[in-house]
Structure formats: structure tokens, C-alpha cells
Amino acid sequence: MRGVVDEVPALEARRLTLAWSGDEAPVVRGVSLHVGVGESVCLVGRSGCGKTTILHALSGLTRPRAGSVLLHGRDVTGVPGDVSYMLQKDLLLPSKRIIDNVCLPLVLSGESAGEARAKARPLFGRFGLEGCEDSWPSELSGGMRQRAAFLRTYLMGNDVLLLDEPFSALDAITRAEMRSWYCDMARELRLATLTITHDVDEAVGMAQRIYVLTGDPRAGVPSRVSAEVRVGRPEGVSFEEFALSHEFLACKREVLEALGA
Ligand SMILES: Nc1ncnc2c1ncn2[C@@H]1O[C@H](COP(=O)(O)OP(=O)(O)OP(=O)(O)O)[C@@H](O)[C@H]1O
């Protein structure tokens, strides 16, 4: 079934086979997935099964051995730059104020610092960073720094975001708040998000659909998508409330079973 909002997915992978070198067995074989406009999807799998390898191919950093990547129906296989990719660490530059950190992608793409700041400033409120424009990264909490990293990623101007364990460096309470904030913000801004995580609770908490990746590339068994689980968190139900529901537990069980846990 297609994404919840639009017929043509924002991001689609068709039968990707990926390997790090020509003579090695593939890390993943025949992986197909899609993320609809405004949809939040998680990819879960054990450590080493190939999640990051898939994100690299989706972002165009590497070329697949076989298969293709489409953005809004356009073939972008092996072409970087059209998808934003955010890593676990916020990677803010300590010597730049927050406003200049978040403006970096705009400045690097040729805008003047003044133009970039004018574009970024109105977004500080929406990203929960009001009043932090002139702070240094070291003055912000982990959650605030992560919000700044999201704003910087958003300012790259892409509507498809790939997130690699985005909340793993945060404490449990901040992580829960950030998940909730991110999902509201992404829905409002119609961002398509693919998040990779080991954390099944996190996946069930933030995704509308979850792909489960299984295999053991280190033992020569390429990973594949072994299940697609639909998460039915009703509109208006908070994460905390949903986490106590039967639906949450049923989804979690389905994912864990598919992982073989
Ligand atoms: N740059 C690389 N060159 C060669 N092999 C790599 C490279 N990066 C990863 N691999 C191998 O590819 C396989 C999949 O790694 P990958 O990092 O994609 O897994 P992962 O599911 O993201 O793991 P984790 O959850 O621990 O981050 C592993 O066997 C890993 O050793």
C-alpha cells in the first residue's frame, strides 16, 4: 500500500541490492520500501544488518549494485543532494553561534550570510529555539542542540529526511519529548521521514509504518525486508497514552517477532 497522503511516494527504493565492494556478498538484497509525503516510517534491524548502508544508497552517497531510488517518481539513483541526511551526533560547529550553524547549508550553497539569517530567523520559534539565535552550541542542552541540527537539516530545502538514530544521544525524557515534537513538526511541514533505529519502542512511537530488516551480512546472508508493520496511533492520542495501549503492544510484538527476538 502506498503512503498515506499521496499516490506517488516522496521516496521509493525499488529492489535495492547493495554491497561495499564488487567482489563481496551483498549487505542487502532486493530491498523495496517507500515513504509517502508527510509520512514517518522507521526501518528497524539488528546492529550490522545494513540500515546505514541503505541510508547511504537512498541519499545518493553510494550507487546500488542493482535497483533504483526515486524521489517523487524521479530516478535519483546515485545522485546526492536531493535528500537530507541527519546523523546521530548534532555536529554543530562549536565556534559558530546557533544562527550561523543552522545557516551553514544556505551559505555553502551560495547565499549571503544576511540572506540566510533572514530565512532562518522566523523558523526559530517553530523549532523551539526562540531566543537561542546568538547562543553558542555549548550553552544549549542536548535536546536544543538536536533541534538546531533539525533546523539546519530543514534549511537544506529537501522534503525527504533520512534520520540515523537521531535521538540516541539524548536522555530518555528528552528523547520522548523530541520524538513527539519531531513528529508534530514533520507532519505540519509535510516532511517525509525515514528513521533508522534499533529501538523498537521508538519505532512504534514515531512511525506510521515500520519496515523490519533481517539477515546477517557478516555471515554472508544479505538482509531483506522481512515484514512491514502498520502502526495505528490514532490522531490526537499522545505518545505516552499510546505506549500504554494494546495496539502499541501488539505492534511491538509483531516487530519483535519479525526480528526473531
Ligand atoms: N564503509 C564500509 N565498508 C565496508 N563495509 C562496510 C562499511 N560500512 C559498513 N560495512 C559493513 O556493512 C554491514 C552493514 O553495516 P551497517 O553499518 O549498514 O549496519 P547497521 O544496521 O547500520 O548497523 P548499526 O545499527 O550497528 O549502525 C556490516 O557488516 C558492516 O561491517
From TrEMBL:
Domain ABC transporter: 11-240
SUPFAM superfamilies for the chain: P-loop containing nucleoside triphosphate hydrolases
Keywords: ATP-binding, Nucleotide-binding, Transport
Pfam families: ABC_tran
InterPro entries: AAA+_ATPase, ABC_transporter-like_ATP-bd, ABC_transporter-like_CS, ABC_transporter_ATP-bind, P-loop_NTPase
Organism domain of life: Bacteria
Keyword Nucleotide-binding belongs to the record: yes
PANTHER family (UniProt xref): ABC TRANSPORTER ATP-BINDING PROTEIN, TAURINE IMPORT ATP-BINDING PROTEIN-RELATED
Record protein name field: ABC-type nitrate/sulfonate/bicarbonate transport system, ATPase component
Species this protein is from: Parafannyhessea umbonata
